[in-house]
Inverse folding.
């Protein structure tokens, strides 16, 4: 437990490591290729969740909404690991990088579990032909989820 407390207390302390530019033998080309690629990946990973959020705002009754939010968080955190890798060339924030990677792992598995849970429901859903069909499909899925919750509660109450 002491190591965790020390880790968090020193989260932004970079005195233990040098910047990545002075670790090893980076050529200018190799270093800037690495930094430029990480910044480009981060930018794409930043734009994708913006598009997802825009979509969800335009269609707030979208089925499986938590999966969309998990995807957005997953992609943002993946992008954060890349931007930190680029920043580490000048500011060796390895502890912060490790924490962001740990959070990325947690959200990644939460997304995996949500997909495993919801994908069969999505495959069973009828493809909507119109806005009304889309809404009916969403309501049908919601009703099925509520019925399953009621059945589970009845089992717990032994009714």
């Amino acid at each position: 437990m002491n190591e965790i407390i020390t880790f968090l207390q020193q989260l932004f302390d970079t005195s233990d490591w040098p910047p990545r530019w002075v670790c090893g033998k980076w050529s200018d080309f190799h270093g800037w290729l690495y930094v430029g690629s990480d910044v480009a990946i981060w930018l794409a990973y930043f734009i994708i969740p913006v598009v997802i959020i825009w979509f969800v705002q335009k269609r707030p009754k979208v089925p499986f909404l938590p999966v969309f939010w998990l995807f957005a968080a997953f992609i943002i955190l993946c992008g954060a690991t890349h931007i930190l890798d680029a920043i580490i060339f000048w500011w060796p924030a390895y502890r912060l990088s490790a924490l962001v990677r740990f959070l990325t792992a947690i959200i990644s598995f939460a997304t995996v579990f949500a997909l495993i849970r919801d994908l069969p429901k999505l495959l069973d859903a009828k493809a909507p032909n119109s806005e009304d069909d889309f809404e009916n499909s969403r309501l049908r899925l919601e009703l099925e989820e509520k019925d399953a919750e009621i059945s589970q509660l009845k089992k717990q109450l032994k009714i």
